[in-house]
Amino acid sequence: SMKMAEGSKKAPSSAAAFCSGAIAGALAKTTIAPLDRTKIYFQVSQTHRYSVKAALSFIRATYQKDGFLALYRGNSATLARVMPYAGFQFAAYEQFKYLLAVDVGEKTPGKRFLAGSLAGLVATSLVYPLDTAKARLSISNKSEYSGLVNVIVKSYRTEGPLALYRGIWPSLIGVAMYGGLAFYTVDTLKLMYKEKFGSAPSSLYAGLFGSTGSVIGQSCSYPLDIVRRRMQTGKAPSGMGVLAFLLHIAREEGIRALFKGLSMNWFKGPVAAGISFATYDLTFPYLSSFEHTMKSRIVKPFH
């Protein structure tokens, strides 16, 4: 019986999920690196209004002044963060799905959302300090910091051990929302596809579902991203909580300020998520079976 077969699923391989997630994240991020660099510049700036035209001229000016590779400034730092983040997120998601028995018996949407949220929380807590360091590096001049390690050392020396965790609250709330909604959307669409067509969707569809999940997740969690960036880069009034700071920005700069750069995300986010989910969908089954084969060879060399 199908139910029985599903119920007796063995635990997913964390190593395979981690590697697939890391590869997926790296591919997605490298594709959109120049757009990321541009987005952070506008998010942090209080004077420059964001528009597609302004973004393009920033990209052109950077290219003319510092060359093509300047658009990838901070990309190795991005990959140093994104690969473990995506790895932990996908591995944690597979484990939470298994622990919460998401695919067993009744298909409960709440559990799917919860698994995505928890996966986001785990991954964020582990790589957050790298993210702060990356934000500080990308808005600095070349003279300020020599590189990522230098940012970490300087921050620790001047501001103490928790310096790089500054602004983590909006990040945790945002990622629980985004992770929950994105993974929930992808899995729900996969289920609907399976019910309608009787077979699992291809990796291309997994990518399209990932893009859809990204749009939904981002729109809801974006204002928290703005708050986080400003807290990380020290542009928030000290002692102000997340909600108070959200309201403060809305009052001082208007509601639009909370969605500054979102139109770039409408393009960037879905592209990245699409590449990421499609890549994961392609590589995870392959790496899982590869790991399984390796294990059985080690365990049973004489069969």
Describe the protein in words.
The structure is a single chain. The protein has 303 residues and is mostly helical. The protein has one domain (13-289): Mitochondrial carrier domain (Mitochondrial carrier fold), CATH 1.50.40. 76% of the residues lie in helices and 0% in strands. The protein is built from 10 helices and no strands. The chain has helices at residues 2-7, 14-44, 52-66, 75-99, 109-138, 148-159, 168-197, 203-232, 242-253, 262-299. Helix 5 (109-138) packs across helix 6. The longest helix has 38 residues, at 262-299. The protein is globular and about 55 Å long. It starts with a helix and ends with a helix. Mean pLDDT is 86; it is low at 1-8. It is found in: Mitochondrion inner membrane.
Tag the structure with descriptive keywords:
single chain, 303 residues, mainly alpha, Mitochondrial carrier fold, 10 helices
CATH superfamily: Mitochondrial carrier domain
Number of domains: 1
Fraction of helical residues:
over 70%
The count of helical stretches stands at 10
Write down the CATH topology.
Answer: Mitochondrial carrier fold
Q: Low-confidence runs (pLDDT<50, min 5 residues)?
A: 1-8
SSE sequence, one letter per element: HHHHHHHHHH
Tell me the major beta sheet: none
C-alpha Rg (nearest Å): 21 Å
Tell me the total number of β-strands: 0
Overall SS class: mainly alpha
- As an assembly, this protein is single chain
What would the average pLDDT be, to the nearest integer?
Answer: 86
The CATH C-level name is Mainly Alpha
Separation of termini?
30 Å
Transmembrane segments: 163-184, 204-224
Organism: Pristionchus entomophagus
Main location: mitochondrion
Family: Belongs to the mitochondrial carrier (TC 2.A.29) family.
